[in-house]
Amino acid sequence: MPPQARRIGNTDLLTFPLALGVGGLGIGMTEADAFELLDTYAEAGGNTLDTARVYSDWVPGELHRSERILGDWLRARRNRALMIVCTKGGHPDLATMDVPRLDAASLRRDVEGSLKSLRVDTIDLYWLHRDDPTRGVGEIVETLAGFVREGKIRHYGFSNWSAARIREAVRHCGAHGAPAPVGDQSLLNIGCRHMGPLADPTMVVSSRDLDSVDSETGLTAFAYSSQANGFFAKLSKAAAEGGQVPGSSPYDTPANRILFTTIDRHAHALDLSITQVVLGFLLTRRHPTIPIVGPRTMEQLKDTLRAADVRLPSEVFEDLRVQAGF
Predict the structure, then answer these.
(1) What is the 3-state secondary structure (H, E, C) of 68-86?
(2) Average pLDDT value for residue range 7-27
(3) Do the beta carbons of residue 110 and residue 151 sit within 8 Å?
(4) What's the angle, vertex CA 14, arms to CA 16 and CA 55, rounded to 5?
(5) Who's near 240: CB < 8 A, 6+ residues apart?
(6) Is residue 13 packed enough to be buried (19+ CB in 10 Å), middle (13-18) or exposed (0-12)?
(7) What is the pLDDT of residues 182-211, one digit of tens each?
(8) How far is Cα of residue 248 from the mean position of the Cα atoms in its chain?
(9) In sequence order, what are the beta bridge partners of 222?
């Protein structure tokens, strides 16, 4: 593990600065290509793999494809002991996104299904993929505490939970002696504070309130969509080629267009790629933050991995922090 390894919460889990999101395994790539991506990440020192029970279920042909391919790789490489395996459960069924699934029976099906697909004895970090604000936090936390006692999971965290609900969960754990959460996963990137509306209202965008919760409780922040879906890198490419950014993006706002010019200026001054500055911003934050990256090609992965060592000079970080609204 390189010297820049980061501890997750108050656990004994030491993670590479970048977690690899593997939701796209087997989608638009062969399984051999998926293995090559995983091998390259591991060879660079990467050890934290983030998937979910629901990942790839929207693609016909096979349910839980991401977990299954990851399990195949772990078994083929015989490196389970070296990896921090993270997965998520409690996501609504895709056909009924407005119906939460955080009852104990549904969570047990998800946890046990993930263990079977991944072919592991325990999950290092288990995320609840969504919240159900109508259900008491204590009930949800005690279900997770039961999984910890059974050895099915080692630690847990919350993805797409509000700051208020996380605070309530931490208070419950303190009052009842239950294992406390160790991480908070939200949509977090340099452009998220200036983005437009999301198509999925159940996704929670990072906020100053969530930042405060993480600092108060010692939770490690995990950032999904950490590269703003490649918006700033695509903007750079379009500018170089004299074209337009293809498609529409919630990040394409006047404030983020202005932010791009600052990112681009600092990238040139520091001889970094746009991706390295975008990820370096998260890695330079005062509070421990683990960007989850999801490259689909070897070229993207290699560019991303070069960001693992990037820590921006303080004056550059402050310039970006203020302009990004953090």
Answers:
(1) HHHHHHHHHHCCHHHCEEE
(2) 95
(3) no
(4) 65
(5) none
(6) buried
(7) 999 999 999 999 999 999 989 999 999 999
(8) 23
(9) 185, 290
Instruction: Tell me which residue has tokens 């490259």.
Output: 295
Closest CA to 160 of 73, 90, 215, 244: 90
Per-residue pLDDT of 110-137, as tens digits, reads 999 999 999 999 999 999 999 999 999 9
Taking each helix axis from N to C end, the angle separating 314-324 and 254-270, rounded to the nearest 10 degrees, works out to 170
User: With contact defined as beta carbons under 8 Å apart, do 305 and 297 qualify?
Assistant: no
Which of these, 260, 261, 240, 263, lies nearest to 310 by C-alpha position?
263
Listing DSSP states for 214-274 in one string gives HHHHTPEEEEETTTGGGHHHHHHHHHHHT----S--TT-SHHHHHHHHHHHHHHHHHT--H
Q: Does 61 or 8 have the greater pLDDT score?
A: 8
- Between the two ends of the chain, the Cα-to-Cα distance in Å is 30
Where does the pLDDT of residue 2 fall: very low under 50, low under 70, confident under 90, or very high at 90 and above? low
Averaged pLDDT score across all residues of the chain: 95
pLDDT at 1 over 60: no
Contact 129, 204 (CB under 8 A): no
**Beta-strand relationship, 6-7 and 14-15:** antiparallel
Is residue 97 pLDDT above 60, yes or no?
yes
Would you tell me how many other CB atoms lie within 10 Å of the CB of residue 201?
Answer: 9
Q: Alpha carbon of 248 to those of 179, 186, 236, 306: distances in Å?
A: 42, 22, 16, 28
